[in-house]
TrEMBL record:
One matching Pfam family: FGE-sulfatase
Single GO MF annotation: formylglycine-generating oxidase activity
Name the UniProt record assigns to this protein: Gliding motility lipoprotein GldJ
Annotated signal peptide: 1-22
Gene3D superfamilies: paralog of FGE (formylglycine-generating enzyme)
Keywords attached to this entry: Lipoprotein, Signal
Organism whose genome encodes this protein: Flavilitoribacter nigricans (strain ATCC 23147 / DSM 23189 / NBRC 102662 / NCIMB 1420 / SS-2) (Lewinella nigricans)
Domain (Sulfatase-modifying factor enzyme-like) ranges: 54-359
Domain of life: Bacteria
Top-level taxonomy: Bacteria, Pseudomonadati, Bacteroidota, Saprospiria, Saprospirales
Length: 501
């Protein structure tokens, strides 16, 4: 009898809990029930926050001094120090490897190879970057990218344009994987030509896929496809901006005096502390080289029996100690493309203006989807992507926050700046010049400093330049589990809602 009473009590409590959980949440402004077909079906998610995509690390944003804080030994004055703030974002833990890039090529060949072989050919890295008039590097032309011995080494010979194409492809593959993992789509290796999963095409209904089970539609009571508002799919992978890359490389959080203040104990020349490229703490790693670089003329790796950086030319993408954000090879190994267009006076523009000290970036080309007369995106292109057009200057002329569609030369090359870049005559700077940073296996230690910068045309490549990807952070800057700083949060007060019953 006693056990029967206990069981009855448990059932009553369970029923009350289930009833409480089943209670529909109401709108803050109308009192209407949410996620209820009878009440119109307007949805509100119990969203737990942005997940961390494959190989990404959350970089908590903040303020820092961007630019060269040491001696400008080249006397170019193209990166004067200025105070800026970078929003939280995600960065690849490593440089993109040969094996990563070969997976990309494999997909392109499988999907487009028969009909559009040029898509695959255009994505191939330039392996001839290893050739040199007075050097025996011909074996690397054939082996570095293709041989499994170099699988985990950084891909090189990839242009800025090719790097961006890889990032766009990666966005679609990761989002397709997330839909498969959620049980919404089935894996579909039979995708061909324009009938392939593209995030934007899927979201506007121009790709169906091999559907397993769609989401419940509270509006109709049936099913519906995933929307971006569902928070299942991630924002796009892309190259990091120069400010993001430099901030992530410095990783000054490692020198924070305490968790109770905003002070750092020391600034940094490199992605680690000290003024030397050797490990300085008194432990088993003391004296070890911290990056893969050219120590002096003719010295790329040290001498037999005591190789200093143990790499020639490159090292695996997870070689050496990571910085305080957990990122590998933010100095040395290979230089890395960033998103920015190169202009030497950009730092001066930022220093003179308080309007461009948050997420600074030069290289915007504002664009918008091509729509039909009903405001619906027109049919996707032959590769399965939505069609875009660039914003014209006259469309932006009456706006307050921007006035031109492609502000490449804003305050550095336009009439207002009185600067002029005569490409091929007085300068190699053009609207195709893109920044790369970080130093490489063939560079001296000076270029390992995150504040240094150089440029190369976006359609050219080098044996010393690779890349890694980044992604924006949406929502709380500190992550999903905690809120740092003095962002006071209070629980919503409970009110008498008996009138809504």
């Amino acid at each position: 009898m006693k056990n029967l009473l206990k069981l009855s009590a448990i059932l009553v409590v369970s029923t009350l809990v289930m009833t409480s959980c089943a209670k529909k949440e109401r709108s803050d402004v109308t009192g209407w029930k949410l996620n209820d077909t009878k009440w119109g079906g307007f949805e509100k998610l119990d969203y737990e926050g942005q997940i961390t995509g494959p190989n990404l690390v959350l970089i908590e944003g903040g303020t820092f001094t961007m630019g060269l804080t040491g001696q400008d030994v080249t006397y170019e004055w193209n990166n004067n120090p200025r105070r800026v703030t970078v929003s939280s974002f995600y960065m690849d833990e490593t440089e993109v490897s040969n094996h990563n890039y070969r997976e990309y090529l494999y997909w392109l060949d499988r999907v487009f190879g028969e009909t559009y072989p040029e898509v695959f050919l255009d994505a191939l890295p330039d392996t001839l970057v290893w050739r040199e008039e007075l050097g025996f590097n011909e074996p690397l032309v054939e082996t570095y990218f293709r041989h499994p011995a170099y699988d985990d080494y950084p891909v090189v010979g990839v242009s800025w344009v090719q790097s961006n194409d890889f990032a766009r492809w990666r966005t679609d593959r990761v989002n397709e994987m997330l839909l498969i993992e959620k049980g919404i789509l089935n894996p579909n290796p039979e995708q061909k030509d324009e009938d392939n999963f593209n995030t934007e095409s899927y979201l506007v209904g121009q790709y169906e896929g091999n559907v397993r089970k769609n989401l419940k539609d509270f509006k109709t009571g049936g099913e519906r496809r995933v929307r971006f508002e569902d928070g299942i799919m991630l924002p796009e992978y892309r190259l990091p901006t120069e400010a993001e890359w430099e901030y992530a490389a410095l990783a000054l959080q490692g020198n924070q005096a305490s968790e109770k203040d905003e002070l750092i104990t020391d600034r940094r020349i490199y992605p680690w502390n000290g003024n030397t490229v050797r490990y300085q703490r008194r432990d088993k790693n003391q004296g070890n080289i911290l990056a893969n670089f050219k120590r002096s003329r003719g010295d790329y790796m040290g001498m037999a029996g005591k190789l200093n950086d143990n790499a020639c030319p490159t090292a695996p993408v997870r070689a050496y100690l990571p910085n305080d954000f957990g990122l590998y090879n933010m100095a040395g190994n290979v230089n890395e493309w960033v998103l920015d267009l190169y202009r030497p006076l950009t730092s001066q523009t930022l220093s003179d203006s308080e309007n461009h000290d948050w997420n600074p970036y030069r290289g915007n080309r504002f664009r918008q989807k091509v729509l039909d007369e009903n405001g619906v995106p027109v049919e996707k292109d032959s590769l399965g992507r939505l069609r875009y057009r660039y914003v014209e200057d006259d469309e932006a002329a009456n706006r307050d926050n921007y006035k031109v569609g492609q502000p490449f030369n804003y305050l550095d090359g336009d009439k207002q700046s009185q600067a002029y870049y005569d490409y091929g005559v007085h300068t190699l700077i053009s609207d195709k010049a893109r920044v790369y940073k970080g130093g490489s296996w063939a560079d001296r230690a000076y270029w390992l400093s995150p504040g240094t910068r150089r440029f190369l045309d976006e359609d050219k490549s080098s044996r010393t330049i690779g890349f890694r990807c980044a992604m924006i952070r949406v929502g709380a800057p500190s992550g999903n589990d905690e809120v740092s700083g003095h962002n006071y949060k209070t629980k919503r007060k409970r009110r008498d809602d008996r009138r809504f019953k």
